[in-house]
Known about the structure:
Elements: E1 4-5, H1 6-13, E2 16-18, E3 26-27, E4 31-32, E5 43-45, H2 58-63, E6 68-71, E7 79-81, H3 102-122, E8 127-132, H4 137-149, E9 154-155, H5 166-171, E10 180-184, H6 192-199, E11 204-207, H7 215-218, H8 221-228, H9 230-233, E12 243-247, H10 251-254, E13 263-268, E14 279-286, E15 291-300, E16 303-315, H11 319-332, H12 337-346, E17 356-359, E18 365-368, H13 375-390, E19 397-401, H14 411-424, E20 429-433, H15 437-448, E21 452-456, H16 459-469, E22 475-479, H17 487-492
Parallel strand pairs: 4-5, 5-6, 6-7, 8-10, 8-11, 9-10, 11-12, 12-13, 13-14, 18-22, 19-20, 19-22, 20-21
Antiparallel strand pairs: 1-3, 2-7, 14-15, 15-16, 17-18
Amino acid sequence: MISMTLAQIAEVVGGTLADGAAPESRVTGFVEFDSRKITPGGLFVALPGERVDGHDFVAAACQAGAVAALTARPVGYPAIVVPPAGPGDATAAAFAHDSSGTTAAVVKAMAKLARHVVDQLRARGLVVVGVTGSAGKTSTKDLLNSVLSHAGETVAPPGSFNNEIGHPYTALRCTEDTKFLVAEMSARNIGHIAYLARVAPPSIGVELNVGSAHLGEFGSRENIAIAKGELVEALPPAASGGVAVLNGDDPFVAGMVERTRAKVVSFSAQHPPAPGARYVASGVALDDVARASFLLEIRDGERVLESHPVRLQVFGAHQVSNALAAAAVGIELGIPASDVAAVLSSHVTASANRMDVRTRADGVTLINDAYNANPDSMRAAVAALAFTASGRPEATSWAVLGEMAELGDDTLQAHRDLGEQLAKMHISRLVAVGESDPVGELAHAAAAAGVDTTTVPDTASAAEILQERLRGGDVVLVKASNSQGLWRVTEALGGHGERNNEDDGGLSK
C-alpha cells in the first residue's frame, strides 16, 4: 500500500482513532486480514466472521508489527474504529450472518481505502484491468499477470480473490511502483461487478464467457450476461483509454458491444474465427498432454497484419481462448506482439489446483483442477482428460469428480449431463466423491451410459481406491467445486511431484 498516516486512513474510511492510535503513525506495509501474515508497518483488518472474529487476533497482529487495526469496535490496541453499516448498505447483502452490520462496515472501510489508493495511483499512471466470465477468470488472470509483468510491476490476486473482500485486498497490494493491477471480478447477482468496479475502476475490461456457473443465484444465462456486462459498462470512453476485450466466440459476450463507450476489440479461438475478431488463434494443435500450440494472429478484417507462434505450457484446448484474451490486453497496452507470444509460451500454472498437470515417476499423469467447477469448465477438463489419454492406448482414464455447487434448479440435470458426457468422451472410469443427491445423479448417469463407476463417501476413500488400482501411464482428472476439497486426492497421490513443462518434450518421467 502507499504510505499513509492513521489520521489520513481514518478520514478516508470514516472512522475514529481509538486506544492510543497516534494520528501521525504511518502505515508503510501491507494490509492483511490474517494476523499471521502481518509484517512491521502493516495494517490489520479485523473481519468479524461467522465462525472466527478477527477482533480476537488484533493483539497478535500488533505484536507482529501492525501499526494499528481497522475494527468495528475498540479492542484495547491502537485501532481505527468504523461504525456499523446500515441494512441498505451495498455490502451488507454479501454477509447473511452479519445481523449487526459490523462485517459489512469493516469490508466497506477496506473498499474505501482501496479506492483512495487506486485513485492516487491512477493519477500516476496505474492501469486497472478487470477480468470476468463464468469460467477461466483465474487462468486468464494468471496469464495477464505474466504478460503485463513483462512491461512493469504488476499486482494480481492470489488465487481467486475476486469478491468484496479479496478485491480491495488485492488493490491494497499496489504501491507507488505498481504499473498494472489485474482485478478478477466475480458475482453472485446483478450489481456485484458494478460495485467491484467502483472499488477499483478499470480502464480495460476482459469478458471471457457467459456460462452456467452460479445459475442458481441468477436464474438464467441472460441474467448472468447482465451482471457480467457491468464490467464493460464501467469502462471509460475510448477517447479516455477505455478498452473492452470481448470473446467473439460467445454470443452473449459479443452482444455486449452495445453496452460500452470503450474501444472494442474481440478475440476468437474458433475456426473459422468469429467475424471481425482482431486477435485470432490459427492452426491450433494439442500435444500429448493437451497443451496447445497456435499462431497468434492480429487481423484487420480478413487481412493478417502479424502472426507469432505460441506454445502454451498450460493444459487444455480452452486455454487458447484465455491466452488470446491476455494477448489482446498486452498488445493493446503497447507490448510488442512478439514479446507477448514469447511470454505466453513460457507461462506456467500459477494458481493452486488450477489445471496443474504433473506426471509421476511411474508415468501416471495427474490433472489437478480441483479448485472449482461448473458445467462449462467440467466439459473442458473432461475433454483435456480424454485427449491426454487418447495418446496412450494401454492407459486408463480416470475422472475423480465431486459436486458442482451453486447451480440452482439445474443442479441434478447438470450432473446427469456430466455423467453422459463422460461416456461420450470415452472416459474409462469414474470415481464419484460424496454422498449428495447431485453426486448420486452423476454416478447413476455415468454407469447407465457404460462408464465403470465407483461411488465413495470422501476424498480419503477415493485416494485409497486410486492408490490400489492406478497403473503406469494412467491419466487422472480430479475436479469439483472448491468446497468439496478434492485437491486432497491429488495430494495423496503425489500431486506435488514433477510438473510437466516445455523442457521435457512431452512427459516428465
